[in-house]
Structure formats: C-alpha cells, structure tokens
From TrEMBL:
MF term (GO), any: protein-N(PI)-phosphohistidine-sugar phosphotransferase activity
Organism, as annotated: Lacticaseibacillus zeae (Lactobacillus zeae)
Positions of the PTS EIIA type-2 domain: 5-149
The name this protein goes by in its record: PTS fructose transporter subunit IIA
Cellular component GO terms held in the UniProt record: membrane
Keyword Transport: yes
C-alpha cells in the first residue's frame, strides 16, 4: 500500500476556510461522511477529540495528523485539508498548522494494524521537507495528490 492509494481526491480540500481546530476537523469529518467513509459526523469527531486529549497530533512544519479508531468508520480513508492561514493547534514545534490529514479508521483488530501502517506511511512522507513544501504550495487537488508521489 502506498499513500496515494488511500487518498480519495473527493475528500481533499486545498483551500479550507477554517479559523480553528474545531472548524477544520468538523469540515473534514463532513467530507468523510458525504462520501460514505463514516456514518456519524458528531460521534466520529468525538472519537477524534478523545484521541487528541491523549497527546499532540501536530507533528510540526505546519502539519497535523488527527486520528482515532472509531466504530463510526464504514471504510478506511483520509480527508486532507489545507488552509492558507495558520490554525492554532498543539504541535511539537509550537507553530500552528496549515495541513490537516484526518484519518478515518475503524476500531476492530484489523483496523488497528491498518491504522498504524497508515500513520507510518504518512509520517514517512511528511518527514520529507519537499513533500511538506509542495503541500503548503498546493493550489488544487492534483497538487495535493502529486505532493505525495
């Protein structure tokens, strides 16, 4: 499995209008719901915030990867949102975020393994400065997907 195999361009928004964490997480959760990835926006968001309470998901360089294992996930996916403005977020480097990659993964045993694999795949890609630079400059969905190639 490669990162680009899991990205659904329908749930990539390179121009998210959000002022805070709540707005972008809810917007991306709604996108996941609209395309059948989750069955309940509010319950899924609650699961995301439960995970957020356990530790920072802002990995630095303006990137956050909020995630949780949720029984409200119908199929595994990621929603990606990019904001032109910095959004306040708890991060390793103390900066806010502009790129948010929200994982939707179920809560069963098989999903747990997939969850860790996805996090690892994305973290490896996001450890590359060029990938992050290209995401921050992305103007359309193709730019976002191509940044991960």
């Amino acid at each position: 499995m490669d990162v680009v195999d899991i990205i659904d361009p329908r749930i990539v928004d390179p121009n998210v209008k959000a002022r805070n964490k709540s707005e972008i997480v809810n917007k991306l959760a709604e996108d996941l719901f609209n395309y059948g990835y989750i069955d309940d926006v509010n319950a899924f968001v609650d699961d995301v915030y439960l995970r957020e309470s356990e530790g920072q998901t802002g990995i630095g360089d303006y990137v956050a990867i909020p995630h949780s294992k949720s029984k409200h996930v119908q199929k595994i996916g990621v929603a990606i949102g990019i904001s032109r403005n910095e959004i306040p977020w708890e991060t390793l480097d103390g900066k806010g975020v502009k790129v948010v990659i929200l994982f939707a993964v179920g809560d069963d045993q098989k999903a747990a393994k997939t969850h860790l694999k996805l996090l690892s795949l994305f973290a490896k890609k996001l450890g590359n400065e060029e990938v992050v630079h290209n995401l921050l400059r992305a103007r359309d969905k193709d730019d976002v997907v191509n940044a991960f190639k």
